[in-house]
Structures are given as C-alpha cells and as structure tokens.
C-alpha cells in the first residue's frame, strides 16, 4: 500500500469514528492520535493525513451540501457512515485541496470504498464523484504540466 493511500485510509478511519461518535470536534485529535498509532506504523505522510482531516472539517457544510446535490436520492444521514466519509474526503480532494489530479482523487476514493464499504460502495462513490468531476469547470479538471507525473510517485 502506498504511503498516500495509507494516509487516506487513516484519515477515513478517523473521520468514520468522529462521525460515528457524534462529530465531537474536541475529540478529533484523540481519535486521530489513536488511528495513527493503530494503523499508521511506518507512515511518513502524517501531515497529509492531518491536512485531509482538517480540510474536510473546515469545509464540512459545503462538502455535505455537494453530497446532497449529487446524491439527491440519498439523504446524507442515510448514507452509510463509511461511504459518507469516503465521499467527504474525495470531494475535499477533488474540489477544495486540488493537491492531486482529479482522477487520482476519484480513484483513491473508489479504492477506499471497495476496501472499507459494502458491495456497492465503489459504484456509489464513483457515481457521485464522477458526476461532480463532469460538472467541474474545464480549467478545474486539468492538472499543471507534469503535476500528475509528480504525484504518481507520492500516491
């Protein structure tokens, strides 16, 4: 498993527990610390994990609004906790962070969904993130020259 994929996995597990336990932001640092200790042996991308979590939390209302818009048949509270938090991380990377190319963000979210979600989670996450990507402005979907190549080694 690549370092960045492991970082995303830990971020998702942290967000899952945070959400499952009632979204208490005061407990989030302790949850993250526990997740890093439990699952992050050898992880060198701890800052990346922290940035993902902080980014999702800072943009949570906007992200949840996007989920509601692109998954209108699924009220956000009815989406499984795993799928909901994978979508949050994927949307954050796709629409807010823009640190990785959009297709990498989508593929990483799909892989998390396949690994942690139910039988249809991968398709669900792919459908929602794919629709968001299709509706992004053309300049938002392009990566800078060479950026995708640089990120391949980090993914």
Describe the structure.
With 155 residues, the chain is mostly helical. Helix content is 71%, strand content 0%. Helix 6 packs antiparallel against helix 7 (121-134). The longest helix has 18 residues, at 3-20. 34% of the residues are buried. Mean pLDDT is 89; it is low at 143-155.
Outline of the structure:
This protein has 155 residues and is mainly alpha-helical. The chain has helices at residues 3-20, 28-39, 46-58, 60-70, 81-97, 102-116, 121-134, 138-141, 147-152. It is globular and about 40 Å long.
Label this structure with key terms.
155 residues, 9 helices
Number of helices: 9
For the sheet with most strands, the description reads: none
* Number of β-strand runs: 0
Question: What distance separates the N and C termini?
Answer: 9 Å
- Rg over CA atoms, rounded to whole Å, is 15 Å
| Helix fraction bin | over 70%
Q: Judging from the principal axes of the Cα atoms, what is the shape?
A: globular
Low-confidence stretches: 143-155
- SSE succession: HHHHHHHHH
Q: Give the percentage of residues in beta strands.
A: under 5%
| Classification by helices and strands | mainly alpha
Mean pLDDT: 89
Protein topology:
Blueprint (H helix, E strand, L loop, with lengths): L2 H18 L7 H12 L6 H13 L1 H11 L10 H17 L4 H15 L4 H14 L3 H4 L5 H6 L3
Helix pairs in contact: 1-2, 1-3, 1-5, 3-5, 4-5, 5-6, 5-7, 6-7
């Amino acid at each position: 498993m690549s370092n960045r994929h492991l970082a995303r996995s830990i971020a998702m597990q942290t967000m899952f527990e945070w959400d499952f336990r009632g979204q208490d932001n005061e407990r989030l640092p302790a949850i993250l610390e526990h997740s890093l200790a439990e699952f992050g042996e050898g992880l060198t991308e701890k800052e990346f994990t922290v940035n993902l979590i902080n980014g999702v939390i800072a943009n949570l209302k906007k992200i949840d609004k996007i989920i509601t818009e692109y998954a209108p048949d699924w009220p956000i509270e009815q989406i499984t906790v795993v799928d909901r938090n994978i979508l949050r991380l994927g949307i954050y990377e796709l629409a807010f962070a823009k640190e990785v190319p959009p297709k990498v963000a989508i593929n990483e979210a799909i892989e998390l969904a396949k690994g942690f979600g139910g039988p249809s989670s991968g398709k669900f996450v792919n459908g929602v993130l794919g629709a968001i990507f299709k509706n992004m402005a053309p300049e938002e979907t392009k990566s800078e020259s060479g950026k995708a190549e640089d990120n391949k080694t980090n993914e």
